[in-house]
Design a protein that fits this description.
- The structure holds 4 protein chains of 4 kinds.
- Chain A is an alpha/beta fold.
- Chain A is about 40% helix and about 20% strand.
- In chain A, the strands form 3 sheets. Chain A has a 6-stranded parallel beta sheet, sandwiched between helices. Chain A has a 6-stranded mixed beta sheet with strand order 10-12-11-13-14-15, with helices on both faces.
- In chain A, helix 1 packs parallel to helix 7, helix 7 packs across helix 9 and helix 8 runs antiparallel to helix 9.
- Chain B is built from 8 helices and 11 strands.
- In chain B, the strands form 3 sheets. Chain B has a 7-stranded mixed beta sheet, covered by helices on one side.
- Chain B is globular, with a radius of gyration of 23 Å.
- By secondary structure, chain C is of the alpha/beta class.
- Chain C has one domain: Rossmann fold, CATH 3.40.50.
- Chain C has 11 helices and 8 strands.
- In chain C, helix 1 packs across helix 7.
- Chain D is mainly beta.
- The longest helix of chain D has 5 residues.
- Chain D is elongated.
- Classes of the chains: A alpha/beta, B alpha/beta, C alpha/beta, D mainly beta.
- At the A-C interface, strand 3, helix 3 and strand 9 of A face strand 1, strand 2, helix 3 and helix 5 of C.
């Protein structure tokens, strides 16, 4: 019988890894993801999980250890936060290019300087171009589900890509929420055993990653690009399977909330979606025609789904919790990708980005009301004054 | 199971690291959600894991059908539970209590601290000797205070909260289950409602720390231009009930206390002209003293003795270390 | 339940004649003619046999060997970053432990060997190497030492000898001796702080049978082991390709290279000359030292004299380290 | 879909099959300027040339009880000549041989 528990995002992620029966785990402490490894260490010690728990000597080492383990044929897991994620950056392309589908759980944290425990999507977002699947959870239940979903998609031989399974630090990682733990038989039905096409096995010798000529370089990159092109179809298939087996109703890429007849919408991902939902409900009760579109995957970016979802609005506010200093819109990165998704549309909504929740700040309801006000003014004026609003710090509009 | 005022109920635990406020919040939230059919959320906000630093733990309970709307701290709680009397000196402890709110604090049945006058006259003020009961029942203050909370709010099903509390320990320390239960039950029974203590009118305003630095004033790159500006901090809340008292007659000015003090609390001045000592110890600046008692342990002349900290004692005995910087 | 512990016992070899014929590092690799590191790779692979997984942190033994989608390794091999040879090996070892335990793999625990250069072992790769040693993974870390970053065109590394001419330490009027600092001592770094390590040894291409036997002894140990193998580099040290073995021998005869084994606290020496030849004999064969003055050679001789007293005895650089220039 | 020229194909994840015996895709025999030549009668099968060759080009041919040079790969470093115990090997200029080849193909 599935079991209902109150688990933080970290605890839920550890439970998911246990039910995925990961075989090699590599740990290193950094707030706020550490609790995932603390839970897994207890499971290994209590004999609930038959896995090798390796104490890495740093985040770069964590990714290297799980690369070795996954290449040798074991399902592998690691994780980190903030500057730990960026420290391991060298390994991300070799792992993705080597088509080693291991998983890294990221509980976001602002990057230094100066030291800040607070959550910001910048740590993971700054590593989004190496060919890893990547997406955010809104709550502990979704963090649990994303772990299993990403292992299944990543290990599918049509994809064979590693995965960043992200959750906001604190707002998800440390906030206990209701989580339904499925039966192990359900997980075994959903997730087949790990099987890499060419593992490191003396009985079947192969060489991984020899030097190549420059003219073979494009084709190597093309292979990874092809995997990202094929991934969306596999994700749709896997999400249908997941909803069927576990009784969820996830939409694969974008989830709409109160968008029918909406003139404007928030485009948002991660923990602050929860507060945004309530803001939308409150604004709707006051007659404001506003909805919300939540993004579940940043890579592969669901261009069509985003275009279809946002095409019906007059104005879209992209809520950014990551920075891209000097970027085209001078704000975060989501706006660039939203605008390029909308570019081909005959009729494009107005778009701007709202920098909110940076540094790990709460995004209170009044900030969402402020954003909605900016959007409605933009609709009346037929244009947005700026491409980015730093919510809470703008002089006046 | 219905909530007193229909749609939501917020609790704020005010504590110091190590007294179990975080665990209490977790127990209460899981009992409410998994056993009482309510919807609920809990989280604590604390700095890095240091014993003695301030901990605030928030629990928000809602009817089952109403989803959690925000992960914000509970700024206007229906109930405030204070784990340690030292926190009464900090006005933020009372912030946001509505006129009909409940204020539970842990203290032995002695004089009522005058700080409580800042509470609304119409609020229900409850005192329980959580530490005393906890020590006798070999349990911890959080078990007692959870009991008091259930005693004060019948809508909280005491048996379900106790069940959640015991489940936490069943695996690890089964022997603790029994002592926790007796501490919990005594907490639910042996509390007293104090009359005519609060003097304030209406709801207390919520206190939200305004950022000291703004966009214009924050130094570039997060640099701290004035090194050592932690002298403005007051860490005395970290003391858990006792402080070192300096007795100048016995002092031989050997400075052993100064050698071992991790927090730079000892104040010196030049010895009298022609006197036996170059430098003489004049006292302790309790602003920086966390009550670690190293000075008491090392003093060869028993000029430093451990005393129970009663309200106002530290202020009376304090000798300022940086009189020109800190008032 | 399959026990995931190594039980193999690779037998030692007596003479060059009895060296096994099978090759696991085969002809057809892009290393320079007379390459010391390639020779030691061939001997290590021969000693280890078919049940082996090699790891190649970036370096000559990766780039020059594994090139253009063809590799000379007949056993599984994987490239690693030059930073993380030790970490990737730890992951593979951990994987085999659990896979054998769960019955997903059977048979003997494989030999897991990191084939790292001096940079990949004690410079950029030091952290991962040390962690592998500390955690006690059952794997062999080999530092094939050609005393420079050679794949990138000969730049100084921590094991480059004092007074070497490399493209990062060119001699000139301002810095006449070229390299001013004295080298790290890799085996002492391992012996000095890793309680899980039971066997460390130095070896040289000059004595292949000794090298093969030390590799086999290391692979028979259950736990982390470390070999420091001297492998002269004709291009980097600037000597004629046919003299690789001669140079290696001379290094031992002059004390520039010391041959010993360390096993749970005990030192044993091999090929220790009764009387050491002067360092000059070794230097004059190599273009990397031609710029040295007698004074520089004297400093190098003093350093070697202190070193040959015995491994484990602390050796100071005979000159104060140059003050940092502000 | 993409068109990938046959000769430029790259296996999945750049995983390549291990060679057997030798690596024919990397012929290095065309590097040498001198070739070691054996005088069989002087050779006492001491195996120095076999063991000391960095490219494993000298191998013992059990049948004829003789060491044989793998000319496809020998780079002409002459270590074998230096290390031969009985001076049974001497160097000979590569172009003196009718099948002598020096650096005709571009070695990548």
């Amino acid at each position: 019988m599935p079991k209902e528990m109150m688990l933080s995002g970290c605890a839920a992620s550890a439970q998911a890894a246990k039910m995925a029966q990961v075989e090699v785990i590599c740990s290193y402490p950094i707030r706020p993801y550490t609790a995932i490894m603390m839970e897994l260490a207890k499971m290994v010690a209590n004999g609930e999980l038959d896995a090798e728990f390796v104490h890495g000597e740093g985040e770069h080492a964590q990714l290297s250890v799980v690369l070795g383990a996954a290449a040798a044929g074991a399902r592998a897991l690691t994780g980190s936060s903030g500057v730990g994620v960026t420290y391991a950056f060298e390994t991300y392309s070799p792992i993705a290019g080597g088509r080693i589908p291991l998983q890294m759980m990221i509980a976001d944290r602002a990057l230094d300087p100066p030291g800040d425990f607070g959550s910001e999507h910048t740590d993971a977002m700054s590593c989004r171009d190496q060919g890893w699947l990547m997406g955010w959870a809104e709550n502990p239940q979704e963090a649990f589900d994303n772990c299993l979903i990403n292992y299944r998609v990543g290990e599918d031989h049509r994809v064979l890509l590693p995965q960043f399974v992200c959750q906001d630090g604190y707002f998800v990682s440390h906030m206990p929420g209701k989580v339904v733990l499925p039966e192990q038989s359900q997980v075994d039905e959903f997730l087949p055993p790990y099987n890499l096409p060419h593992p490191l096995d003396p009985k079947r010798p192969v060489s991984h990653g020899p030097q190549i000529r420059p003219d073979q370089g494009t084709i190597m990159d093309l292979q990874r690009a092809q995997a990202m092109l094929d991934a969306p179809a596999v994700i749709r298939e896997v999400i249908d399977d997941y909803n069927r087996i576990f009784g969820r109703n996830y939409s694969p890429f974008v989830e709409e909330y109160m968008t029918d007849d909406a003139e404007m919408a928030f485009f948002i991902m991660g923990a602050h979606t929860m507060t945004a939902r309530h803001a939308v409900r409150h604004l709707r009760s006051q007659g404001v025609k506003i909805g919300l579109v939540k993004l579940r995957f940043v890579r592969p970016w669901p261009t069509q789904d985003v275009a279809e979802a946002l095409s019906k609005f007059k104005a879209v506010g992209v809520v950014e919790t990551s920075t891209s200093y000097g970027g085209a819109a001078r704000g975060g990165n989501l706006l660039h990708e939203v605008r390029s998704s909308l570019y081909e549309l005959p009729q494009r909504p107005l778009t701007t980005s709202f920098m909110a929740g940076l540094g790990g700040e709460m995004v209170p309801l009044k900030d969402f009301y402020y954003m909605a006000d900016i959007l409605s003014k933009a609709i009346k004026a037929g244009k947005t004054n700026k491409t980015v609003y730093w919510v809470g710090f703008e002089a006046e509009d | 199971m219905s909530l007193p005022n229909g749609n939501r109920f917020g609790i704020r635990f005010e504590s110091i690291g190590g007294l179990g406020a975080h665990a209490a919040g977790q127990v209460l939230a899981s009992a409410a959600v998994l056993k009482m059919g309510l919807n609920g959320a809990h989280f604590s906000s604390y700095g890095s894991e240091k014993k003695g630093s301030l901990v605030r733990s928030y629990v928000r309970l809602l009817p089952a059908e109403q989803p959690i709307r925000t992960s914000a701290p509970v700024e206007t709680p229906d109930a405030i539970v204070v784990f340690h009397a030292a926190l009464l000196k900090n006005p933020a402890t009372f912030a946001g209590l509505p006129r009909d709110g409940t204020f539970i604090y842990n203290a032995p049945p002695r004089s009522i601290p005058e700080e409580l006058a800042a509470l609304p006259g119409t609020a229900r003020i409850i005192r329980v000797d959580a530490l005393g009961i906890a020590v006798k029942e070999k349990s911890r203050p959080n078990a007692v205070l959870l009991g008091t909370l259930c005693g004060a709010f019948p809508f909280l099903d005491a048996e379900k909260v106790l069940e959640a509390l015991s489940e936490g320990f069943a695996g690890k320390r089964p022997e603790a289950v029994a002592s926790n239960e007796s501490a919990f039950r005594r907490g639910a029974a042996e509390f007293e409602i104090l009359k005519g203590v609060g003097r304030a009118e209406g709801d207390l305003p919520a206190a939200r720390a305004e950022p000291a630095w703004g966009y214009e004033t924050q130094p570039i790159g997060g640099i701290v231009p004035n090194a050592g500006n932690t002298v403005w901090n007051d860490v005395s809340a970290a003391r858990t009930g006792s402080l070192p008292v300096f007795n100048r007659q016995n002092c031989i000015h050997c400075a052993l206390c100064d050698l071992v003090c991790p927090d730079l609390c000892l104040v010196w001045e030049d010895g009298e002209k022609g006197g036996r000592f170059e430098r003489e110890l004049t006292g302790v600046d309790y602003r920086y003293c966390k009550g670690c008692m190293r000075c008491v342990e090392t003093c060869p002349a028993s000029a430093m003795t451990k005393k129970a900290e009663t309200p106002g004692l530290a202020e009376r005995l304090r000798v300022p270390l940086f009189p020109d910087l800190v008032e | 339940m399959a026990v995931a512990i190594k039980t193999q016992n690779l037998a030692p070899v007596k003479l060059i004649r009895n060296v096994p014929k099978e090759e696991y590092y085969v002809p057809g690799h892009r290393t320079c003619a007379g390459c010391g590191p390639a020779l030691q790779y061939k001997l290590v692979a021969k000693a280890a046999g078919p049940n082996t997984i090699f790891l190649g942190p970036t370096g000559c033994m990766y780039v020059a060997n594994a090139s253009y989608l063809c590799t000379p390794y007949t056993v599984p091999w994987m490239h690693t970053q030059i930073t993380n040879g030790g970490a990737v090996a730890s992951g593979i070892e951990a994987a085999y432990k659990v896979l054998l335990r769960k019955g997903k793999r059977e048979g003997e625990f494989p030999n897991i060997i990191v084939m790292a250069g001096d940079g990949g072992s004690v410079d950029i790769g030091l952290q991962a190497m040390s962690a592998m040693m500390y955690r006690g993974h059952d794997a062999l870390f080999i530092c094939y030492d050609n005393e420079a970053y050679t794949n990138t065109g000969i730049q100084t590394s921590p094991t480059t000898p004092y007074g070497s001419n490399t493209t990062f330490t060119p001699p000139g009027p301002a810095i006449p001796e070229g390299k001013t600092t004295f080298p790290k001592d890799p085996p002492q770094l391992v012996i000095g702080g890793h309680p899980a390590v039971k066997y460390v040894a130095t070896a040289s291409v000059a004595y292949p049978v000794d090298l093969i036997n030390k590799v086999r002894k290391a692979l028979n140990v259950v736990g982390p082991t470390f070999l420091h193998i001297h492998s002269p580099c004709p291009k980097g040290w600037k000597f004629d390709a046919s003299k690789t073995i001669e140079v290696a021998r001379l290094a031992i005869e002059t004390g520039m290279w010391n041959m010993y084994e360390w096993e749970s606290g005990e030192y044993r020496y091999q090929f220790r000359p009764k009387k050491y030849k002067p360092v000059r004999e070794y230097l004059k064969l190599q273009g990397r030292f031609t710029h040295l003055s007698d004074a520089h050679i004297a400093k190098l001789q003093a350093f070697v004299d202190a070193k040959v007293k015995g491994p484990g005895i602390p050796v100071q650089a005979p000159v104060p380290t140059p003050p940092a220039v502000h | 879909m993409f068109i990938i020229p046959k000769d430029k194909e790259v296996p999945l994840g750049c995983v390549t099959p291990a060679p057997v015996g030798e690596q024919p895709m990397m012929i290095t025999g065309n590097w040498r300027e001198y070739r070691p030549v054996l005088e069989p009668e002087k050779c006492d099968l001491c195996m120095n040339c076999v063991v000391f060759c960095p490219d494993a080009c000298f191998q013992l041919n059990e049948a004829e009880d003789m060491v044989v040079l793998n000319e496809k790969y020998c780079k002409g470093c002459n270590i074998c000549i230096t290390e031969c115990a009985t001076n049974a090997l001497t160097e000979a200029y590569e172009l003196d041989f009718d099948d002598g080849v020096v650096r005709l193909e571009k070695p990548f």
